[in-house]
């Protein structure tokens, strides 16, 4: 099925119901499914008449808006594949991704048009240029004012390319996951079943890519007044006001957003009785945050989805689940991942970085042993665009299907429940064996003086020394150097009660931790490791 069909279905079934809203200057402008479908089809006519073809990769670089949303659906009507790259990505990586994907068509804002002009070699493949509220390029919205709706509909094969969605690049080079139309359809089915999503509800879309699914659910998407490249700097009062004004039943966002909103709501005595499901994802979610958020939802539940750009959803835990396992989480078991999503099969395999060409059950770890999380199911993407080596490292052929290596390490406990131990690339290889960061951080984050912590290995793999980097609570942090050293020893003594924490050799303090540009929540441990090694040198 062409994923653009979802928009047509909504326009036919509920033409006058709202499908999208955008907040600006304290007000929300909203459009019906019929208005959105008609606008998207006029956009499709402009693109088709200009030469956009089925199968084209179309780089779309513009802030989320009504016209961004309509452009993507217009491309789906034509059987073209939008390419979405995180705009907050480090510049060299961003330009390399643009060059590697070799788009034939470029659609961009004024800022994106300027980047294309300044870095021509990264966009040498581009033949057609369009603007979205841009000073350069043919502006799609202006051209669409005089265009007739595109009446056709390309019906691509299920295995045909529907989109290229780039990973954030927070834990390795950013890669373009190739989504087929079948992947999108499977994700809509799995997410709808997992979260009991109902048509007609409102979703406050604090992560716009997730909102691309909403036409399939019949949800109205509201794009809040938020700089999506800096979610950690959001105005929590604005988010709370949008939740109340729209009576949103659902919202999805990173811990960086919801830690601010929760703290603001607690301070102002606010709750969100209309919010049925709050999804917090993008990095391990502290149980305390999920439980604090749950207290603000008298009629709802907090979910911590687990997945990746390449495979979503994989698993889900609720605040109720996290309360049940809280003692284990705070005792060094890791981050609880919950139950598997519909259609997902799980395996933990031996830890290694080398490609694995063919699946064998001999790869599986024994119960209780740590291993790399692998999944298979219809939601998993098969390849990365123009990156055969990355594809070989992440996919394992198994007959006509394949397993996707998540790049995360986990362990099944005695009850058969899955716990996250950290990214594979973040494991600390000491002379005595591997050390995993998430269980250790979960313990030390409970210390009364610790706001956040991160474990890194000092030295070369195989001879690394585990060090804890601590962001202290500023109001409790002593200025005197000797008292800081005393605090470091006190933090280490706290960890001595937990076997997983006794390997930590020292503590270093920082004002903040470097994080990813997409969610502002994943810790950039490579940068942190370099900083720590310089400090100790």
The tally of domains stands at 4
Structural class: alpha/beta
How many DSSP E strands? Answer: 26
> Helical segment tally?
18
- CATH level-4 homologous superfamily of the largest domain: ANL, N-terminal domain
Largest sheet: 14 strands, mixed
Nearest-angstrom radius of gyration?
A: 24 Å
Q: What is the name of the CATH architecture of the largest domain?
A: 3-Layer(aba) Sandwich
CATH class of the largest domain: Alpha Beta
CATH topology of the largest domain: Rossmann fold
What's the helical proportion of residues?
Answer: 25-40%
Low-confidence stretches: none
> Strand-residue fraction?
25-35%
Round the mean pLDDT to the nearest integer and report it: 94
Shape estimate? globular
Keywords:
537 residues, Rossmann fold, Luciferase, domain 3, 4 domains, 14-stranded mixed sheet, seven-stranded mixed sheet, 26 strands, 33% helix
Descriptive notes:
- This protein has 537 residues and is α/β, with parallel strands linked by helices.
- It has four domains: 5-19 and 30-177, 3-Layer(aba) Sandwich (Rossmann fold), CATH 3.40.50; 196-332, Rossmann fold; 344-425, Roll (Luciferase, domain 3); 427-536, GMP Synthetase, Chain A, domain 3 (2-Layer Sandwich), CATH 3.30.300.
- The chain has 18 helices and 26 strands.
- The strands form four sheets. Strands 1, 2, 10, 11, 12, 13, 14, 15, 16, 17, 18, 19, 20 and 21 form a 14-stranded mixed beta sheet that branches.
- Helix 1 (5-13) runs antiparallel to helix 2 (33-50), helix 10 packs across helix 11 and helix 14 (326-333) crosses helix 16.
- The chain starts with a helix and ends with a helix.
- 50% of the residues are buried.
């Amino acid at each position: 099925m062409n994923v653009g069909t979802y928009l047509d279905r909504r326009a036919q079934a509920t033409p006058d119901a709202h499908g999208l809203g955008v907040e600006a200057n304290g007000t929300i402008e909203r459009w019906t499914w019929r208005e959105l479908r008609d606008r998207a089809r006029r956009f499709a006519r402009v693109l088709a008449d200009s030469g956009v073809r089925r199968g084209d990769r179309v780089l779309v670089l513009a802030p989320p808006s009504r016209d961004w949303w309509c452009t993507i659906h217009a491309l789906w009507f034509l059987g073209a594949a939008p390419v979405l790259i995180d705009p907050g990505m480090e510049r060299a990586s961003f330009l390399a991704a643009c060059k590697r994907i070799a788009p034939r068509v470029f659609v961009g804002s004024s800022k994106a048009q300027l980047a294309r002009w300044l870095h021509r070699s990264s966009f040498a493949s581009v033949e057609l240029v369009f603007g979205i509220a841009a000073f350069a390029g043919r502006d799609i919205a202006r051209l669409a004012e005089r265009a007739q709706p595109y009446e056709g509909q390309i019906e691509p094969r299920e295995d045909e390319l529907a989109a290229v969605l780039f990973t954030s690049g927070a834990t390795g080079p950013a890669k373009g996951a190739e989504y087929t139309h079948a992947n999108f359809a499977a994700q809509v089915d799995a997410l709808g079943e997992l979260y009991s999503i109902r048509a007609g509800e409102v979703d406050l879309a604090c992560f716009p890519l997730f909102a691309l699914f909403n036409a399939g659910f019949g949800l109205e998407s509201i794009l809040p007044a938020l700089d999506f490249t800096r979610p950690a700097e959001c105005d929590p009062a604005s988010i709370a006001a949008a939740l109340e004004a729209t009576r949103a039943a659902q919202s999805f966002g990173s811990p960086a957003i919801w830690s601010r909103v929760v703290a603001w709501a607690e301070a102002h005595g606010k709750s969100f009785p209309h919010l049925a499901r709050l999804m917090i994802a993008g990095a391990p979610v502290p149980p305390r945050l999920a439980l604090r958020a749950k207290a603000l939802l008298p009629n709802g539940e907090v979910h911590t989805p687990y997945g990746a750009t390449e495979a979503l959803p994989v698993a889900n835990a609720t605040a109720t689940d996290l309360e049940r396992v809280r003692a284990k989480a705070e005792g060094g078991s890791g981050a609880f991942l919950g139950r598997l999503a519909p259609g997902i099969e799980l395996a933990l395999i031996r830890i290694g970085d080398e490609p694995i060409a063919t699946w064998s059950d001999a790869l599986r770890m024994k119960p209780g042993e740590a291993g790399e999380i692998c999944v298979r199911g219809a939601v998993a993407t098969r390849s990365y665009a123009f990156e055969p080596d990355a594809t070989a490292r992440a996919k394992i052929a198994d007959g006509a299907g394949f397993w996707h290596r998540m790049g995360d390490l986990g362990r099944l406990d005695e009850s058969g429940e899955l716990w996250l131990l950290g990214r594979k690339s973040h494991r600390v290889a000491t002379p005595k064996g591997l050390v995993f960061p998430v269980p250790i951080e979960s313990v030390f984050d409970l210390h009364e003086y610790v706001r956040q912590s991160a474990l890194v290995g000092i030295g070369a793999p195989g001879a690394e020394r585990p060090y804890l980097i601590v962001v202290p609570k500023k109001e409790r942090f002593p200025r005197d150097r000797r008292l800081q050293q005393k605090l470091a020893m006190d933090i280490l003594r706290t960890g001595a009660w937990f076997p997983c924490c006794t390997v930590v050799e020292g503590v270093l303090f920082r004002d903040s931790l470097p994080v990813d540009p997409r969610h502002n929540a994943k810790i950039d441990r490579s940068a942190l490791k370099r900083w720590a090694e310089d400090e100790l040198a």
